[in-house]
Amino acid sequence: MKIMELSKRLRCVASYVQEGVSMADIGSDHAYLPCYLVERNQITHAVAGEVVKGPFESAQRTVRERGFSDKIEVRLANGLQAIHKEDNIHTVTIAGMGGPLIAQILESGEKHLTTVERIIAQPNIHARPIREWAVNKQWKIVNEAIMKEDGKIYEIVVLERGRATYDEDELQFGPYLMREKNDVFIEKWQREANAKRNILQALQKAQKTKDNERRSEKIKQELANIEGVIAK
Questions:
Q1: Which InterPro entries has this protein been placed in (predicted)?
Q2: What is the pLDDT of residues 26-61, one digit of tens each?
Q3: Is the pLDDT score of 1 beyond 80?
Q4: What is the pTM of this model?
Q5: Do 30 and 120 reside in the same domain of the chain?
Q6: SS3 164
Q7: Less packed terminus of the chain by CB within 10 Å, N or C?
Q8: Which residue, 132, 149, 173, sits at the end of a domain?
């Protein structure tokens, strides 16, 4: 059987999983990520959690076909309920969904994180709610990444236990990402700025109401903030 291959996005997530740990992949889909990590002896064992029956069965099939049933347990469960205390899970990965949903999963399943020391979140959009959750729940950002695959831009936020505070720009743009400010970061926020300019143009042509005026002022402030961060 061929060695398991991953998308660039999931390889980036995998790179933040430390050697020799146990992990739970929440929303595992086909369980490609835990299989990849087991195949490379990067983790000791894993739980692959899925809330939808179809992907759950696909994950079971992948694990069985790869011969990893002794190292990966696939569970049909809602979010972090896939984790049992006796699993002694060190690292949680949650990839491929919106940031607000990831934050909601972490919030609603917080009691299942008792043994967890690292969370690797890969939101498809809107990473800010994850950073806000971290601040409120005494997790700190220890690393971040931003990358592009097939025309789409993804962020990865790596959390560990600890207290931290972040200003508004750091919550919005990411403390590590805005410090590094690589080409993908610039592209992402230039796209956002262009989208806001388009909205402003539409509002200028729309009927003048107090709501539209308030919305215009808010978007102008957001646009100025983006331009300021890019220009720094």
A1: SAM-dependent_MTases_sf, TrmK
A2: 999 999 999 999 999 999 999 999 999 999 999 999
A3: no
A4: 0.94
A5: yes
A6: coil
A7: N
A8: 173
